[in-house]
Amino acid sequence: MCSARTCLAHWDSADLARIRCLSGARQNRWKGAGAGGKVPDPATAYRHSVRVPSHNEVGEMGTLHGASSVRTSDFSGGSAAFVVDARGLVSAWSPTAERLLGYETAEVVGRPVAELWPVIPWDAPQQLSQAFGAGTPGPTAVLTHRQGHPVPVTLAAYPVTSVVPGSEGTVILATAVSLPTADQDWLHHRERTAAGALRSSMEPADAPDHSAAWITRSYVPARGGTGANGSWADVIPLSSARLAFVVSDVPDSGMQATVCIGLIGAAVRALAELDLAPEEVLARLDDIVSRFTAGQGNKWSLPFVERLVGTTYLYAVYDPIARRCVMASAGHPPPAVADPDGSVHVPELPSNRPLGMGEPVFESLDLELAEGSTLLFYTGGLVRACGTDDAIAGLLSRAMRQSGPSIKDAWRVTVDTMTPLLEAEDDLALLVVRTRALSGDRVVTWELPGDPAAVAGIRSLVLQQLDQWDLGSLDFTTELIASELVTNAIRYGREPMQLRLIYDRMLICEVSDGSSTSPHIRRASATDEGGRGLFLVADCAQRWGVRYTNQGKTIWAEQALNTEATSERP
What we know:
570 residues; 5-stranded antiparallel sheet
């Protein structure tokens, strides 16, 4: 049996190769066993052919090379015990083994022991007996818990010479031990490195450059523990030149926290594509987390998703045209807001409960922000370091005074000030945002009458506006998009109706009406007289979608300003 350091050193390459070989050999062994050559599930076939002995029977399985019997207390007491039959399959599993390694009996009985733990050599009981000294405590090995973390143990093998029929094999005792300090440091370093690498791959290189705001973002890892905890900040571009700001805190650390961030981050970006209101996004997230944890009894569920329960989340949407920011929180602290004149305050945001706690309704807050306002979004580490909202507001105020007009300097002052104050186990995600506003000459709005005959005049207004913006290359596609959306609103919507063009990094065409009827794109057949409107819009635009408001809905379509990409006629 190899030492702990040797086992760890070969964990990633040699043992994985051995798993593949063993798995392939056992699959070939079962091939052709069923009718028509169907390969049965090994665990199912095993349970049908071999009777699993009870705990008392294991205690009477025979002698250890003529010595005393294996005691039942060894099987159900402090040492974790399990039985491996002559074919290398697990045939019995003790409650202590379940507690130590996380697997339930149904999950391991009938499975190859070398597939579960490659560090246990298995070709025959004799080899295992020689490796572990026939009942004497063996060297330290590292087994893997069901949730993926290492479990250092000492192993002892007890070959059975007189057995209950059909239960030949070996009783293995696994006693948990502490690894030497050097090995513990190695394992911690390995987890820190893996979690940091995964987090870096998820983190964008820099905050997106956007006309709605100047943005800086940073992450300060914890000095102790695994180095990467559950703090996260993100910026998501939305339709109509809007931005979503996301800040969250997962109550976990290390690799599992990083994976949880990835799971919930993917869900948020998918919900953001639906253009839901912030309170609706949180309600959907809460439902997703509840569904994750409710499926823990399912063998296909991820073993660590219960750590998502208690996650705090803040989702805010900023509209640079209306200069309004709507935000909702699931137990997350509100941002600090600095007005252009230098005054700082922390708004009273309805906190609601964290995700997964059964909150049925989430409340939101609507703020009107002056152009040039600065918002500081943060995670729980800053709250524990500062203590109060007034202290956080004072921190932002000092950063604004020392940095001047540069938002990057404000961000740097904040990070430099707070990093030494963080507790060793606390990480910190910061998002510093300075709002911008789209000027009036970049946004044009027309009220629409309910008369289909007005569509021709609307097309003329659109073409005139494109000429003023020097966007003649987009005249054909924009005229088509506006015509189809306006006609659709007049025919199927209801007043009030309006058309809005937004000249930003994209050319955005929006048509709003008072109806909440959802349009659906489809491919019309050759004999259909209609049904091609949204299909043409989707074909001409780079992106299109629908968002719903309290007054109705808005259908929008975005076109790239690249003339080479938009000059082709459909």
